[in-house]
């Protein structure tokens, strides 16, 4: 039984990772664009672009990754919790952009490479175990 659970977990996190790659392309493209055309702080830009990617990921993950959970008949509550975790993920990302800049890492791609895996793992675990829990 444990092998089935592990296989299901690997399958689910792989699908979630695929969706995350698509949404990160949107996120990173917007991040580069806004950084290029404005002089706004990158930590703020990263929060905004993360939320844009998170919005797209809700619809893709709901359709392709997660089974309807305990909120299946309460779509507004499900979306609200998903957005709340997106806000949490964006704050984690913004904080890591700030921290990396304060220690001298100012390359936007390196900053994203540091922040993305951390927010990916934290937010997947919350979404999988709370929002879409069966």
General description of the model:
With 134 residues, this protein is an all-alpha fold. It has one domain (2-131). It has helices at residues 2-37, 42-64, 75-102, 108-131. The chain is elongated, with a radius of gyration of 16 Å.
Q: Rough shape? A: elongated
How would you spell out the order of helices and strands?
A: HHHH
The largest β sheet comes out as: none
Count of distinct structural domains: 1
- The poorly predicted ranges are none
Question: Which percent band covers the strand fraction?
Answer: under 5%
What is the total tally of β strands? 0
Mean pLDDT figure:
90
Total of DSSP H or I helical runs spanning 4+ residues: 4
User: Over all CA atoms, what is the radius of gyration?
Assistant: 16 Å
Would you tell me the structural class of the helices and strands? mainly alpha
Distance between the termini: 17 Å
Residues in helices, as a percent range: over 70%
